[in-house]
Specification:
This protein is an all-alpha fold and 282 residues long. It contains 18 helices and no strands.
C-alpha cells in the first residue's frame, strides 16, 4: 500500500481522466503483457477493472496485443475491454496487434468491433503492419475496407512505406490489390523512395505496374537523379526509359479500365489462362 501511494505521488492522475479510469501499471497489465492467461482470468474474476489504464492511457488490452497474446486479448474483450481505446500517443489495440504482427489478434479485435480505418491523427494500423513487413495483418485490414491509398502526412501511403522499408512482399501485394503506383508522400512517389533505398526488385515491380519514371518530387528530382551513380537502381531505371512495349501498355490500360478491383474482375471475364495470368502479373 505504501509503495502504491509513493507511485501515485510521483505520477499524479491527469485531471482530464475520470477517477475510475486511471491506474498505474497494474498486475492485470503485467499478466496481459506476459501472456499469463490464468493469472489474467483470476484477476478479472476477483473484480479487477479490465479498463484500468496507465498514465499514458495504456490498457491491458493494448499490452496483450503488443505481445501478440490472442487468448488474453479475447478474455479481456469478453469481459468488456474497450476495443478502440487510444493511448496518449494515438495507438489503439489494433495498432499494437499490427506492430506485433499478430494476425490472430487483428482478427479478434475486428470481431469485437475494432475500427480498421482510423482518423488521420491516430496511429495507422495498416502503415505499421506494412512498415514491419506483416503482410497478413495488412491483407486482413484491406479486406475490412481500409483505404489502400490512405496518405498519412508524415508517412505517406502504405505503398510508399513499403518501398521506404523495402518490404518487397508488401509492395507486390499492394500493387496486386490495386494500390496507386504514383501516390506516395506529397510529390514524392513510391519510385522515389525505392531509388533512395537502392531497391532494384522494387524498382522493377513499380515499373511493371506503370510507375511514372520522369515524375519529379518537391525538390525537382526524378527517381533516376536520386539513384546512386553506376548502381543497380540507376541501371534498372535507365533500362526502363523509352516507350513501354505495346503488350505492357495494353495490360495497364485494361487494369485501369477495370479499376481497383481488377484482380477480382479479371477472374470473372473467363479469359484464356495465359492472358489472365499476364493481366494478373503471374
Amino acid at each position: 500500500m505504501h509503495r502504491e501511494m509513493v507511485d501515485r505521488a510521483k505520477h499524479p492522475r491527469p485531471r482530464n481522466l475520470p477517477r475510475d479510469c486511471w491506474a498505474d501499471r497494474s498486475p492485470l497489465h503485467e499478466a496481459a503483457a506476459q501472456g499469463r492467461l490464468l493469472a489474467l482470468k483470476t484477476l478479472i474474476a476477483q473484480g479487477v477493472n479490465v479498463n484500468l489504464v496507465t498514465i499514458n492511457r495504456v490498457s491491458s488490452l493494448h499490452e496483450a496485443c503488443l505481445g501478440g497474446h490472442v487468448a488474453c486479448a479475447k478474455a479481456l474483450l469478453e469481459n468488456g475491454a474497450h476495443v478502440n481505446g487510444v493511448t496518449v500517443h494515438g495507438a489503439t489495440p489494433l495498432f499494437n496487434a499490427c506492430r506485433s504482427g499478430s494476425a490472430a489478434c487483428v482478427n479478434v479485435l475486428l470481431e469485437f468491433g475494432a475500427k480498421a480505418q482510423l482518423e488521420a491523427h491516430l496511429a495507422s494500423p495498416i502503415h505499421e503492419a506494412v512498415k514491419r513487413g506483416h503482410r497478413e495483418c495488412m491483407e486482413i485490414l484491406l479486406a475490412n475496407n481500409v483505404n489502400i491509398d490512405q496518405e498519412v502526412p508524415h508517412l505517406g501511403t502504405p505503398l510508399y512505406v513499403a518501398c521506404t522499408y523495402q518490404r518487397v512482399d508488401c509492395v507486390k501485394k499492394l500493387l496486386e490489390l490495386g494500390a496507386s503506383v504514383d501516390r506516395g508522400q506529397s510529390l514524392d512517389t513510391p519510385l522515389h523512395a525505392a531509388a533512395r533505398q537502392s531497391s532494384v526488385d522494387i524498382i522493377h515491380l513499380l515499373a511493371d505496374y506503370g510507375a511514372p519514371l520522369r515524375c519529379r518530387n518537391a525538390e525537382g528530382k526524378s527517381a533516376l537523379e536520386l539513384a546512386a551513380p553506376r548502381s543497380g537502381v540507376e541501371q534498372a531505371l535507365l533500362l526502363r526509359e523509352g516507350p513501354p512495349a505495346l503488350s505492357q501498355l495494353c495490360r495497364l490500360c485494361v487494369r485501369k479500365c477495370l479499376g481497383r478491383a481488377c484482380h477480382q474482375t479479371i477472374h470473372e471475364l473467363h479469359l484464356p489462362e495465359l492472358l489472365e495470368r499476364f493481366l494478373l502479373y503471374r
